């Protein structure tokens, strides 16, 4: 089966709660469909035995779970630079946001960060085979949560996903919400996920999380490291 066919057959994050026949058959192939579509390939599987990480206990608190009926109005300066910091219990990851190429995406991310929407949320998914991403941004930690609004894709022409890319997870075209993923190793994804920034510091944090593997020993699922976004900030440079 080609990687393109496999990608089309995968169950997206907002439907992953229903274990369909397709979901079960893909699990036999070693891929759990619980978030953005995957492209599988013949690569080595990270050992199920968790590696040592620098993760500590998460900060006290719970996600606020706020909801909004519509995408926020544009408040960022698309000609300016913005820096996001993911302060996780495993260390900080700093990201340069690309407001000029993905203005609506960056505007939404900055808005949600300002509303403390991401604070105390778990990164609910790590993939260690085929593609290599850490997925976060869902206050329900199920792969099915969001802020109540959606907005269109951006910046897809010629999009690639090298290590350090941050991009939006989605449930199909035009369904962006709050879930995003960070690529810790070059990922052969199709240009279907809005890339909106690059990691500028903290790649060692991501690779350490990935080295710990998946909690259930598979190649796709909840991170064994137990990653929590203690806080997320996004500021104009």
TrEMBL record:
It is an enzyme of class 5 (isomerase). Residues 91-234 form the PPIase cyclophilin-type domain. Its EC number is 5.2.1.8. The keyword Isomerase applies. Keywords: Isomerase, Rotamase. Transmembrane segments: none annotated. It catalyses: [protein]-peptidylproline (omega=180) = [protein]-peptidylproline (omega=0). It comes from the Bacteria. Belongs to the cyclophilin-type PPIase family. PPIases accelerate the folding of proteins. It catalyzes the cis-trans isomerization of proline imidic peptide bonds in oligopeptides. This is Peptidyl-prolyl cis-trans isomerase.
């Amino acid at each position: 089966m080609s990687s393109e066919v496999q990608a089309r057959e995968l169950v997206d994050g907002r439907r992953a709660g229903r274990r369909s026949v397709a979901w079960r058959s893909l699990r036999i192939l070693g891929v759990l469909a619980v978030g953005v579509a995957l492209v599988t390939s013949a690569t080595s599987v990270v050992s199920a035995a968790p590696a040592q990480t620098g993760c500590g206990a998460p900060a006290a608190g719970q996600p606020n779970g706020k909801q909004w009926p519509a995408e926020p109005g544009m408040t960022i300066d698309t000609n300016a630079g913005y820096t996001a910091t993911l302060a996780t219990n495993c260390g900080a990851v700093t990201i340069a946001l690309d407001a000029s190429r993905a203005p609506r995406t960056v505007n939404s991310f900055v808005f949600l960060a300002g509303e403390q929407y991401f604070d105390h949320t778990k990164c609910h998914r790590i993939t260690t085979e085929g593609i290599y991403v850490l997925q976060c941004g869902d206050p329900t930690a199920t792969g099915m949560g969001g802020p109540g609004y959606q907005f269109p894709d951006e910046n897809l022409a010629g999009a690639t996903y090298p290590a350090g890319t941050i991009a939006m997870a989605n449930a199909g075209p035009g369904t962006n919400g709050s879930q995003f993923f960070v690529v810790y190793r070059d990922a052969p994804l199709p240009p279907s996920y809005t890339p909106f920034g690059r990691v500028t510091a903290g790649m060692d944090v991501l690779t350490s999380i990935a080295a710990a593997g998946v909690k259930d020993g598979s190649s796709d699922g909840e991170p064994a490291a137990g990653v929590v976004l203690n806080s997320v900030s996004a500021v104009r440079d």
